[in-house]
């Protein structure tokens, strides 16, 4: 037991009492005294030791959502914090690899005859697909930076595209409400169009690879108010999810196996996928729900693939690796969901735990168009018609920073695989890359002749693709 004299003695030597916690708030050991000259490096050694990590892992440290980049003493002085308080320091694991910020346009590829409405890299980052107002889907060869296949069959604008997490299929949905499944190796359709929706397709999401391999099922959402689950091997709709009273604007198939739909009826519905029963409703938004994001989205999108580029010999092996990656990313915490709305606000939910939102996230001055969790689940970014991109804590939902620089509405955002950089594309014809640590603009990427509708950062971190009103696809490199 420490005596009062001991404590006094410690205070006179200017030690700081800190409590290390993980991002969920779970303490790592008891509060401890550290000398004021201790900084991130010393903390890193300590965390590795306390967690008994065999391989030393990189960590970043945060005090009330601001990264600690100086010694504890310098921090206390700068922020006028009392030495007598216990300082809570949050440790966050960082990606072991680092992504170089892209800084130049490496190719401008024409081919589409109308605006490019969507771009998406395959889960392994080796292929790229785009959907356009010219009714085609195109697949691009990233090595030669030239068109590979033009996939024809749609009769109207291609609004949505989505790769299966095993990389074996690409699905596209059109303004006419039909869906096509394509073979990425040939560019040929795998069967006839999938019909059933009465209005245009607003979103497509695949069943996670760790739940089912090879990938067979995906869900589509439509302006007709229904979501439909399709089986690509049966080539038909197996379940119709009905219940929304207005258009469904977005859909996500979660890691727990449930489907989330966001709608213009202001609700988010949660469905089970055996029979398509409604499990719960998430209410709170005062206007249309525009966008949904899952904290596990990056591992769901990439399945078994990671930055090492490993190839797999069987669907079983892929499923096993995908499950390991999913469990490691998710940890013991529930999967989180963020919704962005026309009411200028966002909500953070833990749908498996409660139908009440965890927090209401306010600050945007116009509708929130796109929300996206960082690959590590630590951050949420939001893009708005108020020309700003905002950064939030992905666990607490607290506001962290606003990125300003765009002079028009921001349409879409994408993260680098290491969660250190954020990409945004805007009506102002530019792409911008933001540094999450400094909260500053890292790269300004002009070059498009008109509005940028779609951006994607490849899962392997090597390249960025963008498309928009000027009909060209641009590739950007480091």
TrEMBL record:
<feature type="repeat" description="WD">
    <location>
        <begin position="445"/>
        <end position="478"/>
    </location>
</feature>
<feature type="repeat" description="WD">
    <location>
        <begin position="109"/>
        <end position="150"/>
    </location>
</feature>
<feature type="repeat" description="WD">
    <location>
        <begin position="151"/>
        <end position="192"/>
    </location>
</feature>
<dbReference type="Pfam" id="PF00400">
    <property type="entry name" value="WD40"/>
</dbReference>
<dbReference type="InterPro" id="IPR015943">
    <property type="entry name" value="WD40/YVTN_repeat-like_dom_sf"/>
</dbReference>
<keyword id="KW-0677">Repeat</keyword>
<dbReference type="InterPro" id="IPR001680">
    <property type="entry name" value="WD40_rpt"/>
</dbReference>
<keyword id="KW-0539">Nucleus</keyword>
<protein>
    <submittedName>
        <fullName>Notchless protein homolog</fullName>
    </submittedName>
</protein>
<dbReference type="InterPro" id="IPR020472">
    <property type="entry name" value="WD40_PAC1"/>
</dbReference>
<dbReference type="InterPro" id="IPR019775">
    <property type="entry name" value="WD40_repeat_CS"/>
</dbReference>
<dbReference type="GO" id="GO:0000027">
    <property type="term" value="P:ribosomal large subunit assembly"/>
</dbReference>
<dbReference type="InterPro" id="IPR001632">
    <property type="entry name" value="WD40_G-protein_beta-like"/>
</dbReference>
<dbReference type="InterPro" id="IPR036322">
    <property type="entry name" value="WD40_repeat_dom_sf"/>
</dbReference>
<feature type="repeat" description="WD">
    <location>
        <begin position="403"/>
        <end position="444"/>
    </location>
</feature>
<feature type="domain" description="NLE">
    <location>
        <begin position="16"/>
        <end position="76"/>
    </location>
</feature>
<feature type="repeat" description="WD">
    <location>
        <begin position="194"/>
        <end position="233"/>
    </location>
</feature>
<feature type="repeat" description="WD">
    <location>
        <begin position="241"/>
        <end position="281"/>
    </location>
</feature>
<keyword id="KW-0853">WD repeat</keyword>
<feature type="repeat" description="WD">
    <location>
        <begin position="361"/>
        <end position="402"/>
    </location>
</feature>
<dbReference type="Pfam" id="PF08154">
    <property type="entry name" value="NLE"/>
</dbReference>
<dbReference type="GO" id="GO:0005730">
    <property type="term" value="C:nucleolus"/>
</dbReference>
<dbReference type="InterPro" id="IPR012972">
    <property type="entry name" value="NLE"/>
</dbReference>
<comment type="similarity">
    <text>Belongs to the NLE1/RSA4 family.</text>
</comment>
């Amino acid at each position: 037991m420490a005596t009062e004299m001991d404590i006094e003695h410690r205070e006179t030597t200017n030690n700081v009492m800190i409590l290390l916690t993980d991002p969920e708030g779970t303490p790592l050991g008891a509060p401890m005294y550290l000398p004021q000259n201790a900084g991130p490096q010393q903390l890193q050694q300590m965390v590795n030791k306390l967690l008994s990590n065999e391989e030393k892992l990189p960590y970043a440290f945060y005090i009330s959502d601001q990264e600690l980049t100086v010694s504890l003493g310098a921090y206390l002085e700068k922020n006028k914090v009392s030495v007598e308080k216990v300082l809570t320091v949050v440790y966050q694991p960082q990606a072991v690899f680092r992504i170089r910020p892209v800084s130049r346009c490496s190719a401008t590829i024409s081919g589409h005859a109308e605006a490019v409405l969507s771009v998406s890299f395959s889960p392994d980052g080796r292929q790229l697909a785009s959907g356009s107002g010219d009714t085609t889907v195109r697949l691009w060869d990233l090595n030669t930076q030239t068109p590979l296949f033009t996939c024809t069959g749609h009769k109207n604008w291609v609004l949505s595209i989505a790769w299966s997490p095993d990389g074996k299929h690409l699905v596209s949905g059109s303004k006419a409400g039909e869906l096509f499944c394509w073979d990425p190796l040939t560019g040929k359709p795998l069967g006839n169009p999938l019909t059933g929706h009465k209005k245009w397709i607003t979103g497509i999401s695949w069943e996670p690879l760790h739940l089912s391999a090879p990938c067979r099922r995906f869900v589509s959402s439509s302006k007709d108010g229904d979501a439909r689950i399709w089986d690509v091997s049966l080539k038909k709709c197996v379940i119709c999810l009905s219940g929304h009273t207005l258009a469904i604007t977005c859909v996500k198939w979660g890691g727990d196996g449930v489907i989330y739909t966001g709608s213009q009826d202001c609700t988010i519905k949660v469905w089970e996928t055996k029979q398509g029963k409604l499990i719960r409703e998430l209410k709170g938004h005062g206007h249309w729900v525009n966008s949904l994001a899952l904290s596990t989205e990056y591992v769901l999108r990439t399945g078994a693939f990671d930055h090492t580029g490993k190839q797999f010999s069987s669907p079983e092996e892929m499923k096993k690796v995908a499950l390991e990656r999913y469990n490691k990313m998710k940890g013991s915490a529930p999967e989180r969901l963020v919704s962005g709305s026309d009411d200028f606000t966002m909500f953070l939910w833990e749908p498996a735990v409660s139908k009440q939102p965890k927090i209401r996230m306010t600050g945007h001055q116009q509708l929130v168009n796109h929300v996206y969790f960082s690959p590590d689940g630590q951050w949420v970014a939001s893009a708005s018609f108020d020309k700003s991109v905002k950064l939030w804590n992905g666990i607490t939902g607290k506001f962290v920073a606003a990125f300003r620089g765009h002079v028009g509405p921001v349409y879409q955002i994408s993260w680098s695989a290491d969660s250190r950089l954020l990409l945004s594309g805007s009506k102002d014809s530019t792409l911008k890359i933001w540094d999450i640590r400094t909260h500053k603009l890292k790269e300004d990427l002009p070059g498009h002749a008109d509005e940028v509708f779609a951006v994607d950062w490849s899962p392997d971190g090597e390249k960025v693709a963008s498309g928009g009103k000027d009909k060209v696809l641009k590739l950007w490199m480091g």
